[in-house]
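Lab manual, section 2.4: Encoding a predicted structure.

Procedure: take the sequence of the chain (146 residues), apply the prediction step described in section 2.3, and record the output as structure tokens. A sample record is shown.
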Amino acid sequence: MADHTYLLEEGRWRALGELLDSQGRAVMVEGESVVKHQEKVWILDSRVKLSGQEKALIQHRYAIRPLEAGGDSMGWVSKNETIGQLIGRFNLVGDSILSVFQSQDGSHTGSEFLIKENDTTYLNRGVLFKGDERISAWIFKLTRRE
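Recorded output:
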């Protein structure tokens, strides 16, 4: 397994990329993720906004169960203003971090993956569904800031 620096280490990450709507139309976005480790929970605060704008389009605060020694999976919960509570798992697979999730009521599902390019760069791709309909997708590059 790769020595992952995203999630497994505290840090601040810059996100640049595209957010795609249900029709595949892309808008340029930028954002930030901050990972903090506490004894019983890891916190991932992330926000994404249209490039050049101040107001966030999407904000999430993940509460992640810390990785156990020798483990490769971490459960998480997050609150989404539109969808409600999301429940998922981060899974470490070689050079990648995979996540699958669903809303608490089961109406929304999704997945995302992060591929480690090096200790300071990850490529992130993801998709969100409502039932069988894709409502959004994203393509980001995460770069460690500190």
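Check your result against the sample. Residues 11-144 form a domain with the Lipocalin fold (CATH 2.40.128.20).
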